[in-house]
Design a protein that fits this description.
The complex is a heterodimer. By secondary structure, chain A is α+β, with helices and mostly antiparallel strands. Chain A contains 21 helices and 23 strands. In chain A, strand 10 and strand 11 form a beta hairpin. In chain B, strand 1 and strand 2 form a beta hairpin. Chain B has a single domain, classed as Transcription Regulator spoIIAA, CATH 3.30.750. The chains are: A alpha+beta, B alpha/beta.
Chain lengths: 656, 84
């Protein structure tokens, strides 16, 4: 039983996510057939799995929700806010219930009450058709009278506006309704797919002079094509003043009854659910194979040295063959860990929807490229930094509507989340059309924070100046807190992206918006490492960081202020000692030549002196997890051929 | 002022709320010869529409973009052009 519930929880959460993603997509694009089908399937499957347990009320709600989606599929009801809002409410409710169900196997009392409320929201829909079910619900006489005016209204409507099922509305505003702030014609105007309106006066115009302008004397009758639920939603504040009648379209009715029985398209399943830890084990084994294979190289060396050149050649040949296979194996297993970015992206529509409502800003979120895939760790770790950037855009980037209007911008703000694949890397843009950042202010704040001298500041390009928002500590500077609040925590964003092996850049134009570009690896690929020795210990450095290695005579080092430098091809390059950076005991280097790695730090080259350069290795570097994550200067760990763990240094962090 | 009188024309401009109904009705009751110009209005409260339907003055506008959906505007128009 427990296992069954656990399985249910996993599946239900997935289905909830699927349905909520589909519904939000439908809200933006009601004509999206695929999303409608997908939402229906999710609801259908969810109902099915709920049916395994004693969750009657939830079953009823989901059944009703599925029914509505099935009607929408048949084209019987429109896909619009009035349909989607209650369905989203159902999905959210299901999501909230899952934890409780796992614990107790049932719904709480509160949740059961919510169920009946949700059920009410859903059932007041087009399912009742007065003309076909004269004895369903209302007394027959009442509906016959009601239909009278409705049919007359239908007759008044120009024939070419008819078609589809219609809702007839008779709205007799209360005479005192103006005092309640009602604006009846505006209310009617908000009805979905309004086709026809007739106005009349309850009482004939009085003698002039006796007219009370604040007494409502209107009767409004209207026909609209929207689903009953949407009409009811639009009129929810004045239920006592309106009468509604649904007028079914005979043609639609006939076709609807053909398609309503919910039948799922039979699809052969081509996927299977595998626990991610199993795939991780495979990857670990593949990683160990990589290192095991590396030990063949010294073996071949031994064979050659002991005079057996042919054995050495054979070992070498096997090594190459194994290397190829291990590479393929590793590629295949990493492929199994790839998931679409959608897993992180799909949480944003809801977030933006809720936050923008809370902030009172109208904001559209456009998502593109959510099908681009990357390693599961990368996709999942991306959510936090993305969230940070999107929140910044919502809070500080996008201006309030009145400010936007003054700036001749469209009143609705826009955030564009776009992903694309570039070779073995992915690029993600997060662009907003908000107020942008003031480079001059960033520059000034950078000077105030001592990040740059006042003399150097003006020489900085607009773009370079903006990058200071990523500087650690810049965030807390009170001087920039009103600087669209942007600096806040962006150093954290940069660090988490860099930990994933990525980079983050920002461009901003004041008044026009800001764009963040994240560049990340698709997966944690095997990378060539340079193994170096310093202070008696060995460390790995990614070859990608090293521009060249250089042997430096001790006497060519020149002291420059507090530091040291040397000249390489007519350029002065600062020299740092890795032992100092790692706080390891320094070797007496005065007499010897120095081994120096030339690495790039920002826009400058820096020389880093090490004791020895040991070897090169193809290894798989995994990012640090848990407590180790907080250790600065360490990019990850890798296994060496001799089975030892090697720390891989993050040079940029060490230098900075 | 969103309801203003200039020569023979009552002009509704901008957002005309329910509170303007009084002013409009005063003009319309005091002078039956007045015309009403809706072209500068951006929104008109039902109370004002109702006053127009009661007094049926000659009306110019409203101008596009529509203040209300076509179906509502044409209902008002039909009402106003219907013989008493």
């Amino acid at each position: 039983m427990d296992e069954l519930i656990e399985q249910f929880a996993v599946e239900a959460r997935e289905l909830v996510e699927q349905a909520s993603g589909d519904l939000l997509a439908l809200e933006a694009d009601p004509g999206n057939r695929e999303r409608l089908e997908s939402a229906f399937r999710a609801m259908h499957t969810l109902k099915g799995s709920v049916g395994l347990f004693e969750l009657g009320p939830m079953q009823d709600v989901l059944h009703q929700a599925e029914d509505l989606l099935s009607k929408a599929r048949a084209g019987d009801i429109a896909v619009d806010v009035a349909l989607i809002d209650p369905l989203l409410a159902v999905i959210e409710w299901v999501e909230e219930c899952i934890d409780g169900i796992v614990e107790t196997g049932r719904l709480s009392d509160v949740q059961e009450k919510q169920a009946s409320r949700l059920f009410g929201l859903l059932t007041r829909d087009v399912s009742d058709r007065p003309r076909d079910e004269p004895d369903g619900g209302e007394p027959a006489a009442a509906s016959a009278i009601a239909s009278d005016w409705a049919l007359r209204l239908l007759a008044q409507m120009p024939p070419n506006d008819r078609g589809g099922s219609l809702v007839a509305i008779r709205y007799e505003p209360h005479p005192e309704c103006f005092f309640n702030g009602d604006d009846p014609l505006a209310t009617i105007s908000r009805l979905p797919d309004l086709r026809h309106v007739e106005l009349s006066l309850k009482t004939p115009p009085p003698e002039t002079g006796h007219y009370d302008p604040f007494r409502c004397n209107l009767v409004i009758e209207a026909l609209c094509g929207g689903p009953l639920a949407a009409v009811e939603a639009a009129l929810r504040l004045i239920p006592d003043q309106v009468t509604l009648v649904t007028l079914a379209d005979p043609a639609a009715e006939a076709s609807a009854s053909d398609t309503t029985p919910a039948r799922l398209p039979e699809r052969a399943s081509t996927t299977m659910r595998v626990e991610s830890s199993r795939i991780d084990t495979l990857i670990e084994i593949a990683g160990e194979l990589v290192t095991a294979k590396n030990s063949l190289v010294p073996l071949a060396q031994d064979a050659r040295e002991s005079g057996n050149a042919s054995l050495a050649r054979r070992i070498h040949a096997s090594h190459q063959e194994i290397e190829r296979l291990v590479g393929a194996l590793y590629g295949a297993v990493t492929q199994a860990r790839m998931i679409p970015l959608e897993h992180s992206f799909r949480r944003f529509p809801k977030l933006v929807r809720e936050t923008s409502a809370k902030l009172g800003k109208a904001i559209d979120l456009v998502i593109e490229g959510e099908t681009v895939e990357a390693d599961r760790d990368i996709v999942e770790s991306l959510f936090e930094p993305l969230l940070h950037i999107v929140r910044n855009s919502l809070d500080h980037g996008i201006e309030p509507e009145d400010v936007r209007k003054q700036a001749s911008k469209p009143p609705r703000g826009r955030i564009h989340l776009q992903a694309r694949q570039r070779g073995d890397r992915i690029e993600i843009d997060i662009a907003d059309d908000g107020r942008g950042m003031d480079a001059a202010r960033v520059r000034q704040a950078a000077v105030e924070r001592g990040l740059i001298t006042a003399q150097d500041a003006p020489a900085l390009s607009h773009r370079d100046a903006l990058q200071f928002v990523f500087a650690p500590g810049f965030s807390t500077a009170s001087a920039v807190s009103d600087l669209s609040g942007r600096g806040v925590g962006l150093d954290v964003v940069r660090r988490s992206i860099e930990r994933l092996g990525g980079t983050v850049e920002m461009q901003s134009t004041q008044g026009a918006g800001t764009i963040f570009t994240l560049k990340l690896p698709v997966s944690f690929a095997m990378t060539p490492l340079l193994v170096i020795e310093v202070g008696g210990e060995r460390f790995g450095i990614s070859m990608a960081d090293v521009i060249e290695t250089h042997k430096l005579a001790a006497n060519s080092i020149q002291p420059v202020r507090a530091g040291k430098a040397f000249v390489l091809r007519d350029r002065t390059i600062p020299l740092l000692f890795l032992a100092d950076l790692l706080r390891l005991p320094a070797r007496d280097t005065d007499a010897e030549d120095l081994k120096v790695l030339i690495v790039r730090s920002g826009d400058d080259d820096v020389g880093i002196a090490v004791d020895a350069i040991a070897e090169r290795a193809q290894t798989l570097t995994r990012p640090l997890t848990g407590l180790l994550q907080a250790v600065p200067g360490i990019a990850g760990t890798t296994l060496l051929g001799d089975g030892k763990v090697l720390l891989v240094l993050d040079l940029e962090e060490l230098i900075g | 002022m969103t309801v203003t009188l200039k020569q023979k024309t009552v002009r509704l401009s901008g957002s005309c709320g329910v509170e303007e109904a009084d002013t409009l009705v005063e003009y319309l009751t005091s002078r039956p010869d007045l015309e009403v110009d809706l072209r500068a209005a951006t929104s008109i409260h039902t109370a004002l529409w109702q006053a127009l339907m009661m007094f049926r003055p000659p009306i110019t506008g409203p101008a596009p973009p529509p203040l209300l959906p076509d179906a509502v505007i044409s209902a008002v128009t039909r009402f106003l052009t219907r013989p008493l």
